[in-house]
Known about the structure:
The chain is of the alpha/beta class. It has 14 helices and eight strands.
Amino acid sequence: xxxxxxxxQLPMALMVAYLDCLSVGxxxxxxxxxxxxxxxxxxxxxxxxxxxxxxxxxxESLANLGYPADCYDVYVVADNCTDxxxxxxxxxxxxxQPTVFERRDEHNLGKGHALTWLLxxxxxxxxxxxxxPAYDAYAFVDADSVVSINFLEVMDRHITRGDAAxxxxxxxxxxxxxxxxxxxxxxxxxxxxxxxxxxxxxGLSAGLRxxxxxxxxxxxxxxxxxxxxxxxxxEFHLTLVQGGICVTYAxxxxxxxxxxxxxxxxxxxxxxxxxxxxxxxxxxxxxxxATALRRRNPAILDALTEQLVPPLSVLTAxxxxxxxxxxxxxxxxxxxxxSGVMIGxxxxxxxxxxxxxxxxxxxxxxxxxxxxxxxxxxIYLLAAVNLGDxxxxxxxxxxx
Length: 400
């Protein structure tokens, strides 16, 4: 009986051990970048769906970047909007005049289609001007975000270094909005900082988070943007690693997004994220595993593992239930392993919060974790029911 119980909890133990290995790597992460040359020319792409209220704030931050104004252009795609997104996008801010395209397509829905369409418009615009695209790199930023003043300077240093794909730190703009947004900061500290930092430290691909991404022109010319799943960033990451490109992590720059302040507001966003992860596993999992083993490529295997590991809330629910169960029926090694898994998870969480220098309110918000865990498990079950919805539904935020 005891050997059987030990084997049952082994998958959970392996997942936590994997996360703890990334934690060690994150603590050891170090990098020195070459001096900024500020000569890289950027196209900054902003996909926006009904973002009339939050888009102006992003454009203000882009207008005030500490980077030469003649070395970057901003392009906004107002995708199937029913509000004034296109109007506010076209306003001049501190000398910045974004180029705005309006897209109407009721059949090809989603952020991935909007980005592909926008890249095509940029190429067409260059053709109409009888000039080749004059960009060395393409940066992607969500409309509900704010970028750090050094965003393009850091990307310039990475492009100068020869990096083909870069992901900056994607965090929470409003952690004080509510306990839910504070918990979201804790979650993103782990998923968007500790994990990519750890992977980067041990030579794996840091992964893409959909916001604050940058690619060299050669990468975009080679791969385009051919990812239309619900988790289009994760799908594009799988494409890159199979093509031999590892994403570099750049925590020196940040992009902060406005997060929902209640679980009700966050529901549709979280269902979409988890549904997208499950969709990718179903579509690409077996083939990627075969490719990783055939090529003996750890980066591909790790990119697949990232999708296999469930959300921390779901993993915590499983390990906590098993820990309690083991107190009643387990003995010796079973109980010891269950305790070790719980301690490993706690170390993983505390390491992530320390790395982002989380404020006390984030630690206090962890007291609400049991409610969040129950909610997240329910969301995960909802996502597993329907894998096919690809609509781009705007998430309500703050006091909207």
